[in-house]
Input
Amino acid sequence: IVRVTEQPDPRDSPIPFSVENSDDPDATKGKVTVLTAGVNGVLTETFLQTLHDGVVATEVKTGEQVTAAPVTEVRKTGTKVVVAPVKPAATAPAGTDAATAQAIARDMVHARGWDDSQFSCLVNLWNRESGWRWNAGNKSSGAYGIPQALPGSKMASAGADWRTNPATQITWGLGYITGRYGTPCGAWSSFQAKGWY
Output
């Protein structure tokens, strides 16, 4: 003898919510603002199970019903392109005109054991290159600073303030001249022959 019974078996499954997105011209590009959070719905399916001695033998789906409707997520996505502000031009420490820069250079030239003739060659060289301006830039080549380093970032080896500090630029420039030409007069001779050093 087999005892046969029946019982309903409801089962819930999620209904994914949809997303509505619109552009927001007042928000930064890519920024997403959720106006209404999405919520999954619930679909309830009902099955009728037949049990033989308490064990499910068969089941038949008898119906389904949306017991909770999904809530659509409403979003706005920014489209405004923000242009980074232009950094103000770097400023040098006070008193860094050409005369001051040359005074700094004279001390450095003497510290290397060179005489005033070498300093004169250096003055001629950097007068032609930059006019002894710490912020002199060559738009076509990208050379920068009093010694017209190419690229200017090379001078970072002499100090992090290479963009604005004449002393840092001069230190790098004298090192470059020493390594390549030996002396400022050697560099000046090369400049006169080629138009660059």
